[in-house]
Amino acid sequence: AAPALATHSLGPPPPLMPLPTGIETPAKGPSVSYAQQVAEAKALASTSLDGALQNLLSHEKTARLAADVGGTTELVKAMVSLCYDAKDWDKLNETIVLLSKRRAQLKQAVTAMVQQASTYLDELAEARKLSLIETLRNVSEGKMYVEVERARLTRILAGMQEATGDVEAARKTMQDTVVETLGGMDKREKTDFILEQIRLCLEVKDFIRANIVAKKIQTKTFKERREETRRGEKRREELQRPCLFAPLCPRDAASPFGLVGS
To answer: CB under 8 Å to 256, separation ≥6 — which residues?
Structure first.
């Protein structure tokens, strides 16, 4: 017979050690106002723009590394504004590129910078406007949080190219942007963008591509537009319709509404 195996009682298993819950990160402090530093930089910019920018860059580094969204955004916008006020367009482009490439740059700061610089386009000459658009498009390339701003800049650039007679370049510029996947753009603006893409394809007689792009628009979109237009017209008619009780109300020329006691 086989020998019996000896059994030993090991007792209950030891309790399991709790799993680590992760390293707690310190809470972010409140946003710091840099109004005084910005005011000092504006005063210095009248004599030394580079010195004013360097002073703000040191404060921007402190705010950025502290994840201070409000402070970083304030400083970034101030530096862009200083370059614009000084009419130093080359420095404006350089500053935008520099700020966008800073280590651990905050998304909110980049978005605010692109949006503010975009407001300067209407006041610039064609060459400077084109240079600023290219700078902003390069800065926003591949960044989902400024994809809507980049699409709008692309449409402006395509319009400038078409105005110079280069319709093919305008078509290529517009065709590189896929607006149907942009989450921050409303349906109406997306539809207008795609219709512009179709129009440019038809201008260069690229009917195959125009047909492909046209399939991105659903027919119900135009039905919704017609319904919105119809509701708007009906609302305007109701507002312009005279009050049914107006003949029954005594009028007073001194009253702003033409009614006594109003």
So the answer is: 262
Closest by CA to 118, choosing from 144, 145, 148, is 148
What are the tokens at 122? Answer: 């209407």
105 phi/psi in degrees, rounded to 5: -65, 140
Is position 2 within any domain?
no
Task: Tell me phi and psi for residue 89, to 5 degrees.
Answer: -70, -35
CA gap 106, 219 in Å, rounded: 40
Q: Residue 37 sits in which domain range?
A: 33-122
Retrieve residue 88's tokens: 């130093």
Residue 163 lies in a domain: no
When pLDDT is averaged across residues 72-95 and rounded to a whole number, the result is 95
pLDDT score at 14: 61
The whole-model pTM stands at: 0.72
Which tokens hold the place of 230? 């119809």
Q: What is d(CA 97, CA 136) in angstroms, rounded to the nearest whole number?
A: 8
136, 140, 142, 146 alpha-carbon torsion, rounded to 10°: -140
Distance between CA atoms of 226 and 246, rounded to whole angstroms? 33
Q: Provide the token pair at 119.
A: 């407001």
86 contacts 45 by C-beta, under 8 angstroms: yes
* 112 located within any domain: yes
- Residue 51 belongs to some domain of the structure: yes
Non-local (6+) Cβ contacts of 170 within 8 A are 158, 159, 161, 162, 200
